[in-house]
Design goal:
The complex is a heterotrimer of chains A (635), B (307) and C (326).
Chain A (H helix, E strand, L loop, with lengths): L1 H4 L7 E12 L2 E13 L4 E5 L6 H8 L7 E10 L2 E2 L5 H7 L3 E4 L13 H12 L5 H14 L5 H4 L9 H13 L5 E5 L7 H18 L2 E6 L2 H7 L2 E6 L2 E7 H6 L4 H9 L13 H6 L7 E15 L7 E15 L3 E5 L6 H8 L7 E6 L2 E2 L5 H10 E4 L13 H11 L5 H14 L16 H13 L5 E5 L7 H18 L2 E6 L2 H7 L2 E6 L2 E7 H6 L4 H9 L10 H4 L26 H5 L5 E2 L5 E2 L11 H5 L14
Parallel strand pairs in A: 3-8, 3-9, 6-7, 7-8, 13-18, 13-19, 16-17, 17-18
Antiparallel strand pairs in A: 1-2, 1-4, 4-5, 9-10, 11-12, 11-14, 14-15, 19-20, 20-22, 21-22
Chain B lengths: L6 H14 L1 H10 L2 H24 L37 H37 L1 H16 L2 H11 L4 H28 L2 H8 L4 H37 L11 H9 L6 H33 L4
Helix pairs in contact in B: 2-11, 3-4, 3-11, 4-5, 4-7, 4-9, 4-11, 5-7, 6-7, 7-9, 9-10, 9-11, 10-11
Chain C lengths: L1 H30 L4 H6 L5 H10 L6 H13 L5 E6 L18 E3 H36 L4 H13 L4 H15 L12 H30 L2 H9 L3 H39 L4 H10 L3 H29 L6
Antiparallel strand pairs in C: 1-2
The chains are: A alpha/beta (635), B mainly alpha (307), C mainly alpha (326).
Chain lengths: 635, 307, 326
């Protein structure tokens, strides 16, 4: 290998004074200013910065992959001693063998109409002339196995659409490393992935890079994620490198104000303590005597999709399975889980956009499935929804005021003046300027738009608000502001919140009670403190161990992190649905599906390892229906 | 990841947002192109001529003049005259006036039948897309059936056995092309129906009808109107085909189709009778197609690909 | 296995379509005013004779009864007999109707399957011309959005789509046949007679093909797999030929399936202009002569062909792009 010839003291990558910008008729607008750094062989260096800092432009410039209108204005990118920016297209193409790149969009990276394996082989044969097809195929399968793609031999012939995001990202890492490159640029590779999958990908990438002696430039918008991967970190702010330190030193002792801010804004789960706990949540911690407003009884939802290979067959997707819990007045109830766990389906059931296949959803004791006409309208008034996408959730080309009047009109309000007053009052409550009344939402920030969404939900004076990933599109600062707003509104409007989220840190901060979902079922239901400090289910532990944080973890990835990905909800395993990924699975899990078992007063986990020795005395004395643990048994 | 980068989503959404104020942006972009300007100018010239020339010249398109029969267009043969710039036919009728009157009929029938098509197609497509399920299946099967027979067979069958009046022609043309719009409308409504703002309206208590009329139709109709510009040209071709087969507006009213059919008999000694109206029709269609295609290209580029 | 399941499902759907088409055209022909018997017997025939003929042919039964009887025969492969055409020789005019010749009227199925090969030949030549021409113009345009090949594609398709087929037929016949004498135009007496009609049809078909190709090729070139392909080390030619064109061919295929019926519509007119003895000419004559059984037969056969073509198109498209589920 050529890598062996290069002296180890010579950097693989040496960027000097790199300036990149947008070149248009109007002139040149720089994005990167005078960037210089080096990367030694086998080193993993992280580049961290907020969105818009120019990280992606930098990673593209480093592999000489800028497309118009982006243009280089000065500086050099030296790869193994030679500047690559001036290379002719053909020479650069040959160099791709040594310089590899993996991006943030795994699903779009390959031709959707050809098998994944074939495309990896195509690439290998294109950049390494003279390699034989059979040998290339063997090597591709071998590497697919190395990144733990199950049954790699048959997966080799599958199409990109048959791969999940996590699997695709692993296949692309194979695609990048199969030519044994000296440099891999990984641009935000975990961004589209769930936390547990993202953590796996980082681990596999580190393993392979070590095996192949590949140096990695690991670009990420998240400092904790970069910390997992890199031994040294460069911090970027507004197109400049503002700080460079070894990873742990940087976190312990950030010097530049930008870095200090970055470290401070990273959410804390365990070390924050009571200070981050909202007042309201604290006082509600033990209150099981409050009125139950929403109650789910063995709610299941099944979608039927046409079976691919049959004449009239349908597959049943069990999106939500036998979910039972109560939500009490004043709760901030969190529902967390990774993509595909059924939380969105649950949101649609709770807001009665869909009716469940079986089971009941009760609101103040009445089954919402049976509501019609006036009764349904009353329910709509009680429970409102705030959605995820700050752009897609507002009707286009409608003035803000008009948007907020719409629910009132739908509920029979007629007096224009009264409507206007009401809308203006709510706009004030959520912090929207009254001048926006006649304005289109064009040009408003994501945060402002989410305020409009909240206002639209509040205008009917509801009791319950469902927040479906409401904050996930916002940056940290905006998130903090809206969370404060939510707490203020909760006091003023006497609201009950249901937060649906994939973000454990957010849930830790605002929810007093949390349900963890996996494959459509609730696997753990617990009070905030208990869930984060003493989780009862191995899946919860895995989630906590995969959380990218800067503090000392309570749960170590080495002990808890999962292999593989959730099985298909069409083809659920027998017994415990988590057994295929559980590090603690034993023979009982193969046959018997665990029910939610009580762990003390109001905490439950669906795992055989939970010893229900402490039969909860309080759960009966509370006199409330409460979760009926005996009925949690799933089919 | 817990620290979500907001840019990719925001950027994608910002694009979506730009696409939202479609009609203006599409129009602005299209009107800057050369094709659009040529098309509009050509159309205006032809339209002004069709509106004013027959009346100003005072020539009756049906008036025979045996002495002036079979005159060639100016400069294009013996005995031409400025009185009849495009020549005359076998019984001395003025070709220019006849073509321009034909243009009036053709254009009006084209626009009216597109309106019929739009109304039926969009209504059925919206219902199919919004409600889905069995309603959708039934409507889509009918659509497939209609698409599987050439509209011309349908049109000539109906008009061939009944009397071709103008309303009948409009109705037949309109009825034979709705499936295209039903399909487009269905697919866009199906996507929008799942969007968050529709969901928010549902949870807010708005009825289906209110959502369709207040939210979906105002949003989805304008881009489809751009497509329908091209269809006006298509319908004009079909109208002239019907006229050519003797199934369009009946003589003595001149239409492109019946003039060309007449002229075909004199092809060898008076080639202009069959070809000149065709040039007129072709120019009109080109002007409409240039405008329509520019609008569609502008729309596609704003959508970033196929809409 | 799943190919069979797909075929079975699509054939059932296809039967539904053909059935609906039959019902539609059957009802339409009987609802619209105009009595075919009057036309067959001639304007001078006495009312009583017309009633007698109509009753004996079952034309005075309720429409649903007539339709049931008709479909019963269709299922057995019998499309009925022409109202006006004798079993041998050319069409007879309406006025020459008399009882003696009634037994010898031509079978609709025979008439259709005699003329179908001629039309298929015309369609095949058309497709070859149109595809070659459109692919060159369309792919070039799609690979250079905003530059001259794109503009050429835009103007060529805008002008071609503005040429009415019957007029173009007349002009080309006048030019190439009458004036230049290069190609024969009227009737059929050898393969050369197919060329002019095919060119007219290709001009009609090309604009949609060109537009679809331009937009699908240019949108494929904007896909991320194209730019990622570059950083993966694939050459530009390889990306275009192996990946972009492959993906761009799917919309083209689907378009061909949908365009079938409008191509057929063009065939009718063009065959009429060039007196080309195919299915189109047969259709026009059937309509002009109010030959109901023949019109119905043609509608059923063409919709069946439409169904088959679309099944084939979907099969091919699915082989190219496996995401398109069967």
């Amino acid at each position: 290998m050529t890598a062996a010839v290069i002296s180890p003291t010579l950097p693989v990558l040496d960027v000097r004074g790199l300036t990149v910008g947008v070149r248009q008729q109007a002139g040149f607008r720089p994005i990167l200013h005078d960037i210089s750094f080096t990367l030694m062989p086998r080193e993993i260096v992280g580049i961290v910065g907020a969105s818009g800092a120019g990280k992606t432009v930098l990673s593209k410039a480093v592999v000489n992959w800028l497309e118009a209108p982006l243009a280089i204005d000065g500086g050099e990118v030296r790869f193994e001693g030679a500047d690559i920016l001036g290379l002719a297209a053909g020479d650069m193409r040959r160099l791709r063998r040594r310089v590899a790149y993996v991006g943030a969009n795994p699903m779009g990276a390959l031709d959707p109409t050809l098998p994944v394996g074939r495309q990896i082989v195509e690439k290998l044969m294109a950049v390494v002339p003279g390699s034989s097809r059979r040998e290339s195929e063997r090597r591709a399968i071998e590497l697919l196995e190395a990144v733990r793609i199950p049954s790699a031999k048959s997966r080799f012939h599958d199409y990109p659409s048959q791969f999940s995001g996590g699997m695709m990202q692993r296949a692309l890492i194979v695609d990048a490393l199969i030519t044994n490159p000296a440099l891999l640029v990984a641009d935000n590779v975990t961004q589209p992935l769930d936390v547990t999958v993202g953590a796996q990908v980082i681990r596999l990438m580190k393993e392979l890079a070590r095996d192949f002696d590949t140096a990695v430039l690991f670009v990420s918008s998240s400092l904790p994620v970069a910390r997992e991967a890199a031994s040294r970190i460069l911090v970027m702010g507004e197109g400049r490198i503002v700080e460079e330190q070894a990873t742990e030193a940087l976190i312990a002792n950030p010097r530049h104000a930008y870095t200090v801010n970055l470290v401070e804004q990273t959410p804390k789960i365990w070390s924050g303590g009571a200070a981050t706990q909202p007042q309201a949540t604290q006082s509600l911690e033990t209150g099981s005597d409050r009125e139950v407003v929403i109650s789910l009884r063995d709610v299941s939802q099944i979608y039927r999709v046409k079976k691919r290979d049959s004449f009239a067959g349908v597959n049943e997707v069990r999106a939500v399975r036998d979910v039972t819990f109560d939500i009490r007045r004043g709760d901030s109830f969190g529902i967390v889980g990774e993509s595909g766990c059924g939380k969105s389906t649950l949101m649609r059931l709770l807001s009665r956009l869909e009716l469940p296949e079986s089971g009941e959803l009760l609101c103040h004791g009445g089954d919402i499935g049976k509501l019609r006409g006036k009764g349904l309208l009353d329910f709509r008034k009680r429970l409102q929804l705030v959605l995820q996408d700050p752009f897609g959730s507002l009707p286009p080309r409608t003035a803000v005021g008009r948007m907020l009047e719409e629910p009132l009109r739908a509920h029979g309000w007629r007096d224009r003046k009264v409507i206007r007053e009401r809308v203006l009052k709510v706009m004030g409550d959520v912090g929207l300027a009254p001048e926006l009344y006649e304005e289109l939402p064009l040009g408003l920030s994501a945060g402002q738009r989410q305020r409009i969404n909240v206002a639209r939900a509040l205008v009917l004076d509801p009791e319950i608000l469902i927040m479906d990933e409401t904050l996930s599109a916002l940056d940290q600062t905006e998130q903090f502001k809206l969370l404060d707003l939510f707490q203020k509104l909760q006091r003023e409007y006497d609201l009950t919140y249901i937060f649906i989220s994939h973000d454990l840190a957010m849930v830790r901060k605002v929810c007093n009670r949390v349900a963890v979902m996996y494959l459509g079922a609730v696997v753990e239901l617990a009070e905030n403190e208990r869930l984060f400090f003493d989780p009862g289910h191995p899946y919860t532990k895995a989630l906590l161990s995969a959380m990218p944080v800067l503090e000392t973890r309570r749960y170590q990835p080495e002990d808890c992190l999962l292999d593989g990905e959730p099985p298909s909800p069409i083809d659920l395993p027998t017994g415990c649905c988590f057994k295929t990924r559980c590090p603690l699975a034993f023979d009982k899990c193969d046959t018997i599906s665990p029910s939610l078992m009580a762990r003390g007063n109001r905490n439950f986990a669906a795992c055989h390892l939970v010893t229900s020795q402490a039969a909860p005395p309080n759960s009966q004395s509370g006199g409330q229906p409460g979760p009926r643990e005996t009925e949690y048994q799933s089919a | 990841m817990s620290v979500v980068s907001s840019t990719p989503l925001a950027a994608a959404a910002e694009l979506k947002l730009l696409a939202r104020s479609i009609p203006r942006r599409v129009f602005d972009r299209a009107s800057g192109t050369l094709g659009f300007r040529i098309g509009v100018s050509l159309f205006l010239i032809l339209a002004l001529a069709a509106i004013f020339y027959p009346e100003i010249s005072g020539i009756d398109p049906t008036k025979m003049d045996i002495r002036a029969r079979l005159l060639p267009p100016v400069f294009l043969g013996p005995n031409w005259s400025w009185a009849h710039p495009l020549g005359t036919d076998q019984i001395g009728r003025d070709m220019l006036v006849r073509s321009l009157v034909g243009l009036r009929y053709s254009f009006l029938i084209g626009v009216a039948s597109v309106a019929v098509t739009l109304a039926i197609g969009c209504a059925l497509g919206t219902v199919a897309g919004y409600y889905g399920g069995r309603t959708d299946t039934v409507i889509m099967r009918i659509t497939d059936a209609q698409l599987s027979i050439p509209m011309i067979i349908l049109a000539i069958s109906v008009l061939g056995v009944s009397r071709p009046t103008i309303p009948a022609i409009i109705l037949v043309l309109g009825l034979s092309n709705w499936p295209v719009y039903a399909r487009i409308m269905r697919s866009v409504v199906m996507t929008e129906r799942r969007s968050e703002y529709v969901r928010a309206a549902q949870v807010g208590g708005s009825t289906d009808l209110r959502i369709i009329l207040m939210l979906l139709v105002p949003l989805l109709l304008p881009p489809i109107l751009f497509t329908s510009v091209l269809d006006v040209a298509r319908m004009m071709i079909f109208e002239s085909i019907l006229g050519f087969l003797g199934l369009g507006v009946q003589p003595p009213t001149p239409t492109f189709g019946n003039i060309i059919a007449d002229g075909r008999k004199y092809l060898l000694n008076a080639w202009w009778i069959a070809t000149m109206p065709g040039v007129f029709l072709g120019l009109t269609l080109t002007s409409i197609n240039l405008v329509g295609a520019s609008l569609e290209r502008a729309r596609n580029s704003i959508h970033g690909g196929e809409a | 296995m799943f190919v069979l399941a797909f075929l079975a499902r699509r054939l059932v759907q296809g039967l539904v379509i053909v059935f609906l088409v039959s019902l539609l055209i059957f009802t339409l022909l009987r609802v619209v005013p105009g009595d075919p018997v009057r036309l067959m017997a001639g304007g001078m025939a006495p009312e009583a004779l017309i009633e007698q003929i109509a009753t004996s042919m079952g034309l005075r039964d309720p429409i649903l009864v007539q339709f049931g009887r008709y479909m019963g025969n269709v299922v057995q492969g019998d499309l009925g007999q022409s109202f006006v055409r004798p079993a041998n020789g050319a069409a007879t005019g309406g006025s020459s109707f008399n009882d003696a010749t009634r037994g010898e009227r031509a079978k609709v199925a025979d008439l259709i399957f005699e003329t179908l090969p001629m039309t298929l030949q015309l369609a095949a030549v058309t497709l070859v011309i149109a595809l070659v021409f459109s692919t060159i113009i369309g792919v070039a345009g799609g690979l250079a959005p905003g530059r001259w090949p794109d503009k050429v594609a835009f103007y060529v398709s805008s002008i071609f789509i503005s040429l009415p087929n019957f007029w173009l037929g007349i002009v080309l016949a006048l030019l190439f046949s009458v004036h230049l004498g290069w190609l024969p135009a009227i009737g059929y007496n050898g393969f050369a007679y197919t060329i002019l009609p095919a060119i007219v049809l290709a001009v009609e078909l090309s604009p949609v093909l060109i537009r679809t190709l331009v937009s699908s090729v240019s949108s494929q070139m904007g896909q991320s797999y194209v730019s990622v392909g570059k950083v993966r080390g694939l050459g530009h030619a390889r990306i275009v030929a192996n990946h972009a064109l492959r993906n761009a061919s799917v919309p083209l295929l689907n378009l061909l399936g949908v365009q079938f019926s409008s191509l057929l519509g063009g065939v009718i007119i063009v065959e009429f202009i060039f007196d080309y003895p195919g299915l189109g000419l047969l259709t026009i004559n059937a309509v002009l002569q109010r030959d109901f059984p023949l019109i119905q037969g043609i509608a059923i056969v063409t919709s069946a062909i439409f169904v088959v073509i679309n099944i084939v198109v979907d099969l091919v498209a699915t082989t190219i792009d496996p995401r398109l589920e069967y």
